[in-house]
Design brief:
Elements: H1 2-92, H2 98-135, H3 137-161
Helix pairs in contact: 1-2, 2-3
Biased composition (Polar residues): 1-17
Biased composition (Low complexity): 156-170
Organism: Streptomyces cahuitamycinicus
């Protein structure tokens, strides 16, 4: 009987061992499937994120290009208007005036520049600037510095003209204080000024 008990115990141990191995195998398979599914999901999410980032970048590029084209057309219109105004000034000047020839030349150059912007657009302008920068980098950098300085000065002058950029603001007044009339001096604190 003892042998029989021992045999049953060994058989139960073997069965438990086999079931443990089977359960461990199933757990490994399940973990492998979960890992595969997670990997597939990560790949799908990454692919979707890349696609959306590409779409956003393309949309942004299109918007920037469209805005640059609109600004170029607007710049060409403004330049053409200035050139027309200069032509009108030249037409009204005396025929033998030296200023007339200078104004006429400036008007002609303005018309040519406006025509260039209309025909070539932003792409042509950028291509020409890149070509010039490769041929003469020093002149390009110098021109960029001068252009930046000029634009900065024009922006500053424009902001002063509309009163928004005086650069100085009045210090804030404390609540409950009153503004004094034009030439009135503030009262002196007690004990000061008396001798």
């Amino acid at each position: 009987m003892a042998n029989e008990s021992t045999g049953r115990a060994q058989q139960a141990g073997q069965t438990a061992k086999q079931e443990a191995w089977a359960t461990a195998g199933q757990a490994r398979e399940g973990a492998s499937r979960v890992a595969g599914t997670a990997t597939d999901q990560v790949r799908a999410v990454t692919g979707e994120a890349r696609a959306q980032a590409g779409a956003i970048a393309g949309d942004l590029r299109t918007r920037v290009t469209d805005e640059a084209e609109n600004q170029t057309r607007r710049g060409a219109r403004v330049m053409r208007q200035w050139a027309d105004d200069l032509s009108g000034l030249a037409d009204g000047a005396d025929a033998d005036s030296p200023a007339r020839s200078l104004v006429t030349q400036a008007a002609d150059r303005g018309h040519r520049a406006a025509d260039y912007l209309d025909s070539r657009g932003v792409g042509g302008l950028v291509d020409d600037l890149q070509h010039f920068a490769r041929r003469r980098p020093g002149a390009f950098l110098g021109g960029a510095i001068v252009a930046g300085f000029t634009v900065g000065r024009l922006a500053k002058a424009g902001s002063k003209a509309d009163g928004s950029g005086s650069g100085r603001s009045a210090p804030p007044r404390a609540s409950g204080t009153q503004e004094l009339p034009g030439d009135a001096a503030p009262p002196e604190p007690p004990g000061h000024g008396e001798v």
